[in-house]
Automatic annotation (TrEMBL):
Domain (Dynein heavy chain AAA lid): residue spans on this chain: 1021-1168
Domain Dynein heavy chain coiled coil stalk residue range list: 134-456
Coiled-coil regions, chain positions: 110-179, 350-391
Protein name, UniProt field: Dynein heavy chain, cytoplasmic
Biological source species: Gibberella moniliformis (strain M3125 / FGSC 7600) (Maize ear and stalk rot fungus)
Domain Dynein heavy chain region D6 P-loop intervals: 881-988
Protein's UniProt keywords contain Nucleotide-binding: yes
Record InterPro entries: AAA_9, AAA_lid_11, AAA_lid_11_sf, DHC, Dynein_HC_stalk, Dynein_heavy_chain_D4_dom, Dynein_heavy_D6_P-loop, P-loop_NTPase
Gene Ontology molecular function: ATP binding; dynein intermediate chain binding; dynein light intermediate chain binding; minus-end-directed microtubule motor activity
């Protein structure tokens, strides 16, 4: 089993047999050896072995048993172990900085390794597929280049042929004209011998016909063979060249061709050498049968090759597409020679007949023969001339077609040149990507496995992810939760379970993936039943509590995704908000340009992908495929247009970004302010501030800000926004802080502000080693204090330049912050002067550090920043109906009367509910439901008594859809049981006991105003004495535990009320119906005893109890009814009781008391206040230092990551 830390005891209690009858064996986290061995085994399926790998010296060793130097696989697995352990160390830093507990379990490591194997295989396959596409595209382009080169060669040859044909045609024309002129001159003389010549020509013509017919049969076969040879594809020829041991048909065909061409061959290598020559095909096409063929060669060819039954086109062509046409060509050449050999004698015979006819008739018919020859020649010239003209036109048409192809191909290649260069570079980078794939996938897998545990809108994100299927949203508090879970498991719908800080055990089988396969069905246990399980099922668990901690067994069975806001995301959000508010034109242009550039980039990637796809899908010669060429031209044109548009937007984007950067100071300020607010909870449990709380402040600064009204200068408006952001944050947040912590917040915000100041001075002030002293109380420490101060670099040479009388005034002045010696020059900025003053106050007048800190904060933000006025009505208007207002007060002080007063002033309906019983819980729920519908108010008192109800209330408020006028007030004492989520989801107002004896007595006397008018008249003075006692015992708590009390005893108004009841009881018993009684007749001993026991019941320290008894005895005395009786003695004359007898006289006396009483009123030494102020200063420094260190550690964590 895998119980959480505190779950073992419950398992032992519910299943004792597990521990009574079993051996308990503890397994902690896996050792480095176990992690390494598991990682090594699970990565065996992928190729991680590198024979030439040398491990760098910088690789850290995580597995202590690693053999050095490690192999490549061992190095990768060792890195996995190192990453796992490094995250454990990071978690320790995270716990120290944020107090968050994050568990890493072996399941995370297993997930890490599984993700690595999966990603490695996927990414390698993707890379290889991309490389194949690139290579095919590049090969097509290279092939096109070769084809264009061949076309240009062909074009040059055609041009030469055209020039030759033109010359021949001109020559024929001239000869034809000359012969015709001569024939006309000789025609008259040739008529007589024409008949004889006609007879002989008939015979000659018949012989010629036989010869021409034989030749006509052979020449087409030869031309057809040549055409077949010229159509031999390059890859087929390459295939023949690459054959090491060719088939018999291939060898026979190639031997025949080489023999016919006149080559002497001994083996296949010689044949390969001939075939590899560039002019191999050309030599075949240019073969001259009449010159190169002999009878001996003809006989050899017939005997050695043509007679071989294997030497046929069909058999050889099956063996090689290149050799089939070559067999045809060999056969045609041999047959052509046979015809030439046979026709030869016939030609000679024709010539002899012609010669004989001419010789016999030469003398008689010389002229006739000459005319006949001329006319025959003329006719032949005409035919040949027409043929030449036709051939010339054909060559011109073919040249035009080839030129068009060349021009289009050149344009295409030129336009694709950039893609070709990029693809070639991408192809070259393939090896680099493959070599870095191991590390890239390692980082990616680690991110997937671990990053969710560490640091933006979860439900919207899930709804986008599950848009194709219905997302079920529920919680463990939902009555139909089990049915909804069952439905999702059956039908494969995703389910989102909200507020899952604590998991229902019904999910154990689901999270453990305990499936069962039975008869083709997949089942899973849900409660006591087994139901069908759909593989499409997904479960999402969400919590809004950022402080929630999950046990290791939950961490190991789920994948965490942290949606809490980060500083960078807040900066981005703030920048967008301020641009929309201040520069909507720039924001719109910026958004449009970013969107446009994104669309352009996507479109370009798609076009490039289509370019490669078109090249990959083309078959054969792409120059012959018009569709491919047109597609490529269109795609390239579109890409060029988009590239042009992108270039044109870059200039505009640069201008927009320049304006945007001017508002980056606002974004950085927002991030800094929220970082301070986030860390305040380390000072007090109730200082919990949500992102929405901060955004409300930010939006109030941007919209409806009176300081921006009428201001049009953008720079001035920006500066106002920054300043008001800090001031409004302080004033609104200060209402939720104790008085002593307000200066702490002011110091932290001043430190976070973007204003120019020497922040190294703040570091010195916060430095623990720089000790703070109060020389006004201890002047003997002066020399030591100066010695230590001179060790500080910024003060080293400045202290001695101050006149002695200035130092004396500084050390003796009560308000020392007004008499700080000026150790700076005129060039020093005002804020740096304030910091130097603060440093001197710490070093020499620690009792005035808090006022000096206030003065520094005033210097940074303005003099009115600490003028915080609590206006509950304004708070009510600021918050929404779904945001409760929490009134938090110290124990014994109830601030709910402020709500009652506001209700009376605003004349609204408000229902008051007091917690402390089950009936109170039900009444509160009912009152909230009714008020949410009607728009009235609800005040629930003492909610600290019902922390469980508060948890359900926070979740209920999130789903409540109340009337806009509805408001919920919660009064509570400061208790750690108040849920963090409720505090973050409400507006917290902090209330303290009235500070000082005067304020305390005013409050306590006002509560007895109706009873103080009762007789006897001595009763009212007794109330005054009791009120003074109550104020003294409470005010002494400010000095605890050093001076006032040794412990922080929780004296409260109930003690005062009980003591007043005791006074009433005994006075009524003694006085009866009389209006006066003698002070000596009051039972003082009984009253002193009862009051001492009432207040002393909380004290468990003998010294403090004895001190309380002394205070009660000194104040509750019959001498207090004497004129000029001194309640308190002191060097300033002490404090005498008033002379009047009614409540008005006593209230007037209270009003005349000093606002801040001297310590002697409390029975403390005169310097007690100075000691208290010194302690408050040290506490202030300690708190600022604590939060600053947390902020610095947070920044360091980000830097480390």
């Amino acid at each position: 089993m895998n119980p959480p830390e505190d779950g073992l005891s419950s398992k032992a209690a519910t299943s004792p047999a597990l521990f009574n009858r079993c051996v308990l064996n503890w397994f902690g986290d896996w050792s480095d050896q176990a992690l390494f061995q598991v990682g090594h085994e699970l990565t065996q399926s992928i190729d991680l072995d590198r024979s030439n790998f040398e491990c760098p010296d910088t690789v850290p060793v995580a597995y202590r048993g690693l053999q050095l130097p490690p192999s490549h696989r061992e190095t990768v697995v060792n890195s996995m172990v190192y990453i796992h352990y490094s995250l454990q160390r990071y978690n320790e830093k995270l716990f120290k900085q944020q107090g968050k507990v994050t568990f890493l379990t072996p399941r995370h490591f297993l997930d890490f390794v599984a993700q690595y194997v999966k990603l490695y295989n996927e990414k390698r396959e993707d890379l290889e597929e991309q490389q194949r596409h690139l290579n095919v595209g590049l090969e097509k382009l290279r092939d096109t280049v070769d084809k264009v080169r061949d076309l240009r060669v062909s074009l040059a040859e055609k041009k030469k042929q055209l020039e030759q044909k033109d010359a021949e045609a001109n020559e024929k024309l001239q000869r034809m004209v000359a012969d015709q002129r001569l024939a006309e001159q000789e025609k008259t003389a040739s008529l007589e011998i024409q008949a004889a010549l006609d007879k002989q020509e008939v015979e000659v013509a018949s012989r010629k016909k036989v010869v021409l017919e034989d030749l006509a049969k052979a020449e087409p076969a030869v031309e057809e063979a040549k055409a077949s040879v010229s159509n031999i594809k390059r890859q087929h020829l390459t295939e023949v060249r690459s054959m090491g041991n060719p088939p018999q048909g291939v060898r026979l065909a190639m031997d025949a061709v080489c023999t016919l061409l006149g080559h002497r061959i001994n083996d296949w290598k010689a044949v390969q050498g001939i075939v590899r020559k560039d002019d191999f095909i050309a030599s075949i096409l240019m073969f001259d049968n009449a010159k190169q063929m002999t009878k001996a060669l003809r006989n050899k060819m017939r005997n050695d090759f043509l007679s071989n039954p294997e030497f046929t086109f069909e058999k050889v062509n099956r063996a090689s597409k290149a050799c089939g046409p070559l067999v045809q060509w060999v056969s045609a050449q041999v047959n052509y020679f046979d015809i030439l050999d046979r026709v030869g004698p016939l030609k000679l015979e024709v010539e002899e007949l012609e010669e004989k006819a001419l010789n016999t008739k030469a003398d008689a018919k010389a002229v006739q023969n000459k005319i006949a020859d001329l006319e025959s020649s003329i006719n032949r010239y005409k035919t040949e001339y027409a043929a030449l003209i036709s051939e010339t036109q054909s060559i011109k048409a073919e040249m035009s077609k080839v030129q068009f192809k060349v021009d289009r191909s050149v344009r295409l290649l030129d336009s694709l040149s950039s893609e070709r260069v990029r693809w070639e570079e991408g192809s070259k980078s393939f090896e680099i990507q493959i070599s870095t794939l191991v590390g890239d996938v390692l980082v990616a897998a680690a991110f997937l496995a671990y990053s969710g545990l560490y640091d933006q809108t979860s439900e919207k994100f899930l709804q986008r992810e599950c848009k194709d299927r219905r997302l079920t949203v529920t919680s463990f508090l939902d009555d139909t939760f089990t049915k909804q879970l069952e439905s999702s498991l059956r039908f494969g719908n995703p389910i989102l379970i909200q507020d899952a800080e604590h998991l229902d055990p019904i999910l154990n089988h689901v999270l453990n993936k305990e499936y069962q396969k039975t008869g083709g069905r997949v089942l899973i246990q849900l409660g006591k039943q087994e139901i069908d399980f759909s593989p499409a099922f997904k479960i999402y668990l969400s919590t809004r509590d950022p402080s929630a901690t999950f046990a290791p067994d939950i961490c190991s069975r789920t994948t965490f995704v942290n949606f809490t806001v980060t500083q960078s995301s807040l900066q981005t959000q703030s920048l967008n908000d301020v641009l929309k508010s201040e520069r909507p034109d720039v924001d719109e242009r910026r958004s449009n340009l970013i969107k446009l550039q994104g669309e352009f980039k996507v479109h370009l990637r798609q076009l490039e992908k289509r370019l490669l796809q078109a090249l990959n899908e083309s078959r054969g010669n792409i120059l012959d495929d018009d569709n491919v060429i047109e597609t490529l031209e269109t795609l390239k044109t579109e890409a060029a247009e988009i590239s042009g548009k992108m270039s044109s937007t870059e200039g505009v984007m640069a201008e927009v970004e320049e304006i945007t950067q001017q508002y980056s100071i606002v974004a950085r300020s927002c991030s800094a302010v929220f970082a301070v607010l986030e860390q305040l909870h380390y000072l007090n449990h109730f200082y919990q501030f949500s992102l929405q709380y901060f955004l409300d402040i930010f939006h109030s600064v941007l919209h409806g800000n009176k300081n921006l009204a009428g201001q049009t200068d953008h720079n001035v408006r920006r500066d106002v926004i920054v300043k008001d952001l800090f001031i409004n944050t302080f004033k609104r947040t200060a209402l939720g802080l104790l008085q002593k912590d307000r200066v702490t917040l002011g110091m932290l915000l001043a430190q976070a502000s973007p204003y120019k100041m020497d922040k190294s001075l703040i570091d010195i002030i916060l430095d623990n080693s720089v000790e703070g002293k109060d020389l006004s109380s201890d002047p003997d420490e002066r020399d030591l204090a100066f010695t230590q101060a001179k060790k500080i670099g910024v003060l080293k040479e400045k202290l001695d330049a101050v006149p002695a009388e200035d130092w004396d005034k500084f050390f003796t002045e009560e308000l020392a912050e007004n008499a700080v010696p000026p150790i700076w020059d005129d060039r020093t900025e005002a804020m740096d002067r304030a910091l130097l003053s603060l440093l001197l106050v710490k070093l020499f007048r620690m009792d005035r550090f808090v006022p000096a800190a206030e003065r520094f904060v005033n210097e940074v933000f303005g003099s009115g920043i600490f003028d915080v006025v609590e206006d509950l009505k304004e708070t009510v208007t600021q918050v929404s109906a779904t945001l409760p207002i929490s009134l938090v007060s110290s124990p014994g002080f109830d601030a709910s009367y402020k709500v009652d007063n506001l209700v009376e002033r605003m004349r609204v309906k408000c229902t008051n509910i007091a917690m402390g019983s089950n009936e109170g819980l039900a009444s509160a729920d009912k009152a909230i439901s009714n008020a949410a519908q009607t728009g009235s108010w609800v005040l629930v008192k003492n909610v600290h008594l019902a922390p469980t109800w508060l948890q359900s209330l926070e979740k209920r408020m999130g789903s409540l859809n109340p009337h806009s006028d509805f408001r919920l007030f919660l009064s509570m004492e400061s208790s750690l049981k108040i849920p963090v989520n409720l505090l973050r989801a409400s507006r917290v107002l902090m209330y303290e006991q009235p500070a000082g004896v005067r304020a305390n007595m005013k409050d306590s006397m006002s509560s007895l105003s109706t009873r103080a008018t009762k007789s006897p008249v001595e009763r009212t003075r007794l109330y005054l004495l009791l009120s003074f006692l109550h104020a003294v015992v409470q005010e002494r708590l400010r000095y605890a535990p050093n001076l006032g009390w040794r412990g922080f005893w929780e004296f409260n108004d109930s003690d005062y009320e009980c003591s007043a009841f005791i006074v009433d009881t005994w006075i009524d018993g003694v006085a009866g119906s009389r209006t006066n009684i003698a002070p000596q007749n009051i039972p003082w001993e009984m009253l002193r005893y009862m009051v001492t026991e009432t207040y002393g019941g909380k004290i468990d320290d003998e010294g403090d109890f004895r001190l309380l008894s002394q205070l009660v005895t000194s104040f509750l005395t019959p001498a207090a009814y004497e004129v000029d009786h001194k309640l308190v003695d002191g060097p300033d004359g002490g404090l005498a009781v008033p002379s009047g007898t009614n409540l008005q006289d006593f209230n007037a006396w209270i009003h005349r008391l000093p606002e801040r009483e001297p310590p002697t009123y409390l029975g403390l030494p005169a310097n007690a206040e100075k000691l208290l102020l010194g302690d408050l200063g040290r506490s202030l420094i300690g708190n600022v230092r604590k939060v600053t260190e947390l902020l610095d550690e947070g920044e360091q964590l980000v830097t480390d990551v």
